[in-house]
Amino acid sequence: MVEAGLRLFRRQGYTQTSWRELVQESGTPWGSIHHFFPQGKVQLATDALSLFGSDFRRSFEAICAQHVRPSDRIRVWFQAAADEIAGTGYAEGCPLAGIALNSVPMEAPLSETCLGSLSQWTEYLAQKITNDRIDPETALRLATKVLIAFEGALVLSRIRQSSECLTVAGEWMAQTLEVLETAAE
After folding, report:
1. 69: domain range?
2. C-beta separation of 154 from 169 below 8 A
3. pTM for the whole thing?
4. What's the DSSP call for residue 107?
């Protein structure tokens, strides 16, 4: 059910996703909702964001294993996202946006979950795209800029039905990192 919820949140957001759709999408019995998610849709959204965060880290680790330079890592990550969103027919974006835009700040538990997920992703990226010559505060600001560019490019890609925004944003962020890499050498 969590994977089905993740797909639906990416496609249509939090408020537009109903339990009926979740049951249908996941193929699970109606009674399993209350058994596995006694705290309701908020718990499902929390679990979906956790799953997405794990998937993101796993895929980014694979990129890191193949690319040493942070600029290359970002370029490849944005291009992979461009390929993925094109593969969905521009129907699926980031679940964080799909959940946050519909529920924050009205749903306090989801606000906390979204903020926590965003903080974890930012800290993770800061570690993977910087080096020991960059102080932690600067690394976090840089990772925040990368995520801003990424999320914005995802939204624009869906609107324009084109992955060009992700390609352009990825190249822009990679060039920004290349300046820092050159300065650190």
Report:
1. 49-184
2. no
3. 0.90
4. S
* pLDDT tens, position by position, 105-143: 888 888 899 999 999 999 999 999 887 677 889 889 999
CATH classification of the domain holding 98: 1.10.357.10
As a whole number of angstroms, the distance between CA 124 and CA 101 comes to 23
* Inter-helix orientation angle 108-129/70-87, to 10°: 130
What pLDDT digit, counting tens, does each position of 33-69 carry? 888 899 989 999 999 999 999 999 999 999 999 999 9
Give dist(CA 100, CA 113) in Å, integer.
Answer: 9
Task: Please indicate, yes or no, if residue 34 is contained in any of the structural domains.
Answer: no
- Look at residue 15 and tell me if it is in a domain: no
Q: How far is CA 174 from the centre of its chain?
A: 18
In Å, how far are 22, 28, 38, 107 from 12, measured between CA atoms? 12, 20, 23, 18
Per 3-state DSSP, what percentage of the chain is helix, strand, and coil (rounded to 5)?
80, 0, 20
Q: Is residue 42 part of a domain?
A: no
31 inside domain:
no
The set of residues, in sequence order, having a beta carbon less than 8 Å from that of 129 and lying 6+ positions away, is 70, 73, 74, 139, 142, 143, 146, 177
